Amino acid sequence: MSDERQKIGKLGEDKAVEMLKRKKYKILERNEENKYGELDIIALDGEEMVFVEVRSKTGVDFGLPEETVKYKKKRRLIRNAKRYIKYQNINTSYRIDVIGIIFNKKKNVKRIKHYKNITL
Questions:
Q1: Would you call 101 exposed, middle or buried from its count of C-beta atoms within 10 A (0-12, 13-18, 19+)?
Q2: Single pTM value for the model
Q3: Could you tell me the domains of the chain?
Q4: Nearest CA-CA partner of 48 in 95, 14, 10
């Protein structure tokens, strides 16, 4: 992955965390990695565990950022979330959210959209 894409990805995650905190989510972890991949943000929305996938882009030439979360990625996120809950011995409901962010050329947020409880 290019340095520029990594910077946009990190900036997007930072902006997503800011938005979630404004919504009173409690951020538990960021960038939790395991053999199934990475969970961008793990948070609590009240009592519900939320696993957040963040997608960031600097344009929409090839579609919106959230449209890049396809079936295979959703399956991986669900498997990853279940693994996390099992190994952390958590007994609560959970959901998977996606946050899509579009930045302008100056790296200011042009659009941020939060999709709750995505499904296969």
A1: buried
A2: 0.92
A3: 3-115 (3.40.1350.10)
A4: 95
